[in-house]
Amino acid sequence: MHRRDFLASTAAAGLALSAGAFARDNDKKTYRAGLIGTGWYGMVDLRHLMDTGRAEVVALCDVDKKNLNKAADEVASRQKDRPELFHDFRDLLKPKNLDIVLVGTPDHWHALTAIAAMEAGADVYVEKPVSHTFLEGKAMVQTARKHERVVQVNTQRRSTPHFIKAREFIKEGNLGRIGLVRAYTFYNMRAMDHVPDTDPPRTLDFDFWTGPAPLRHYNRLMHPRGWRNFLEYGNGILGDMGIHMLDAMRWILGARYPKKVSSMGGIFCSAKNGTANSTDTQTVTYDFGDFTAIWEHRMYGPPDKPEAGWGVNFYGDKGMMQLLIDSWDFYPWAGQGKHVHMDAVKDGPPDEKYETPDRKPAGRAHMRNFLKCVASRARPVADIEEGHISTSLCELGNISQKLGRSLTWDADKEQCVGDEEANKLLSRPYRKPWVYPSA
Questions:
Q1: Is the pLDDT of residue 9 over 50?
Q2: What is the per-residue pLDDT for 4?
Q3: pLDDT at 304
Q4: What tens digit of pLDDT does each residue of 232-285 get?
């Protein structure tokens, strides 16, 4: 061995050893954590973080005083000190003293809050979908890389044990060549009737809650928890439920962007003067070149089967797998193998404030993966770039449905080919004084 090669190898070994020691030391560290958005799922994520015993929650932020105080009471009951409370996320981040920030806001706030947290030096755990428009997500990825931040997206199916086993089973070739994937949900998660507008609750700063989005009159379907009814704030059922199964599909098959996207749907079965403006019926076809993926949702009528209200089916030349939230089954084509069944694996007791006893949450494992990567500085299983790509499938599907035509996607240029009207919808104007993030 040449001397220069020996020195290079020993230096590399020393770096590896020191990095390993750093990771082991950080594995014992208690992180200073803050949460922006203390509503339903923000608190689910925070409970999973607190369950690890690795975090001191020092700051909470919400524009709804009722949610904020309720969250503070719960946190104070689980740790020694009561967290400091903030109305404006910028004040929470100003001291730049947080190791971790959880973002549990509505979709239209994800980009601005997560980017600000990264710029303040924090690693981020952000709810899905990562953004409301494509270029917001691109800016989030660029910020994470620029500031070398660990960002985990809560597409927790990547940390669900039976999903991991399903991925292994498919990668072993048991389904053969896969030509079609069908993802779907039939749960009724959308308001179907007319609900009159009212004044906002006294505890809610509705103008701040609206933030960069277009200002509508307050409706109780917006807050708490109902904002996905409105496309001003979220990406509808496709962005809520679709992203989970479309992300799982991409992860399992190693796919990235589709070549073409075509969506049909609309508001077909809601009341004629219904309040919600997100689709109650939608089908999206994604052409990946060597296979086709289909998303389908309807917000009315029971599921085709009670146990199959949300899932993803993989069709190969050797058989079909139906992958559901609580199990999966492989059905071979005639004479080509045996039926295989796997149930979900429980990961601790159910979160009684979110999960029903028969549900098997994956959030705990996903949070552990995040903390492991915070310590090692590796990219997590649901890195921000992966979340951005999966979110873009939802955003492109909604653009196609809105325009009533198919889109051809250039993944290198990150644009719709020959369609300036569609490309304009990759971002949107922000309400002043908020400024759209640069990408």
A1: no
A2: 39
A3: 73
A4: 999 999 999 999 999 999 999 999 999 999 999 999 999 989 999 999 999 999
CATH code reported for the domain at 160-356+384-424: 3.30.360.10
pLDDT confidence of residue 309? 85
* HEC letters along the chain: CCHHHHHHHHHHHHHHHHHHHHHHHHHCCCEEEEEECCCHHHHHHHHHHHHCCCEEEEEEECCEHHHHHHHHHHHHCCCCCCCEEECCHHHHHCCCCCCEEEECCCHHHHHHHHHHHHHCCCEEEECCCCCCCHHHHHHHHHHHHHCCCCEEECCHHHHCHHHHHHHHHHHCCCCCCEEEEEEEECCCCCCCCCCCCCCCCCCECHHHHHCCCCCCCCCCCCCCCCHHHCCCCCCHHHHHHHHHHHHHHHHHHCCCCCCEEEEEEECCCCCCCCCCCCCCEEEEEEECCCCEEEEEEECCCCCCCCCCCEEEEEEECCEEEEEECCEEEEEECCCCCCCEEEECCCCCCCCCCCCCCCCCCCHHHHHHHHHHHHHHCCCCCCEHHHHHHHHHHHHHHHHHHHHCCCEEEECCCCEECCCHHHHHCCCCCCCCCCCCCCC
pTM: 0.92
Lowest-pLDDT choice from 4-8, 90-94, 201-205, 207-211: 4-8
> Where are the chain's structural domains?
3-157, 160-356+384-424
Select the CATH number that applies to the domain covering 3-157 from these four: 3.40.50.300, 2.40.50.140, 3.40.50.720, 3.20.20.450: 3.40.50.720
